[in-house]
Write a structure and sequence with these properties.
mainly alpha
């Protein structure tokens, strides 16, 4: 799973239809996020659906294979995080510039 906390971005391949409980990522004791397999186990256990873990795990793995999800190493994930953070900062800066321009136009023409 890609997410902004771990990799600095929201990834379209991380979108699945699921209930709010399943979408809320579980955390480990050290407050870091569980990986998807740990999360699946925690959700199934909390629902008493122990027999569903392997079936659901296999469905997810099949989906990864079907959509050719990349297997990224730590350095590749870090590179994605760096690029994504830079993009978020650029978007923030451009949004602030646009807002300031709008305020200046508002003052010049409206007031």
């Amino acid at each position: 799973m890609f997410n902004r906390t771990e990799c600095g971005l929201h990834h379209p391949g991380n979108i699945v239809p699921c209930c709010k409980e399943c979408n809320k990522r579980e955390r480990l004791k050290d407050k870091s996020y569980c990986n998807w397999e740990q999360h699946l186990i925690k959700v199934c256990e909390s629902r008493g659906e122990f027999g569903e873990i392997n079936v659901r795990r296999q469905k997810i793995l099949n989906n990864f294979k079907k959509h050719k999800y990349p297997e990224l190493n730590v350095n590749e994930k870090h590179a994605i995080r760096v690029i994504a953070n830079s993009l978020y900062e650029n978007i923030k800066t451009e949004s602030e510039k646009s807002l300031n321009l709008y305020k200046q136009l508002d003052e010049a023409f409206v007031k």
